[in-house]
Amino acid sequence: MHPDWAIRQPHRDLELSRNQLDLDLSRPEVREFAWKVVDDTLGTPGVAYVKWDANRFVTQPGSAYLSPAEQSHLLIDYTSRFTM
Predict the structure, then answer these.
(1) Which one of 48, 68, 71, 78 is most buried, counting C-beta atoms within 10 A?
(2) pLDDT digits (tens, 9 = 90+) for 29-75
(3) CA 57/CA 74 separation, integer angstroms
């Protein structure tokens, strides 16, 4: 994954949790990529079930894409607007 695609605070090292990072779905290209992966997976013949775990805490909330005024809403938007 490209480092700019991870939710993180600027000027800090990426912080892995469970060997995972959270995608910054505020970035349009990340949303497009994620939806394509989901669409391709669900469109694969024989795939009838997909389990999606969202069990990694966001440890460094921040987005290189959002303006400073939008940073405080990142986690609210992440769960309500960006994942629909």
Answers:
(1) 78
(2) 998 998 899 899 999 999 988 887 777 788 889 998 889 999 998 88
(3) 14
Token pair listed for 59: 């440890």
Contact 50, 42 (CB under 8 A): yes
**Going by C-beta distance under 8 Å and a sequence separation of 6 or more, which residues neighbour residue 39?**
none
DSSP codes, 25-40: TTSHHHHHHHHHHHHH
Give the per-residue pLDDT at 83: 57
Which has the closest alpha carbon to 16: 49, 78, 58, 73?
Answer: 58
> Residue 20: beta bridge partners?
17
Which residues share a beta bridge with 6? Answer: 23
User: The whole model's pTM is what?
Assistant: 0.76
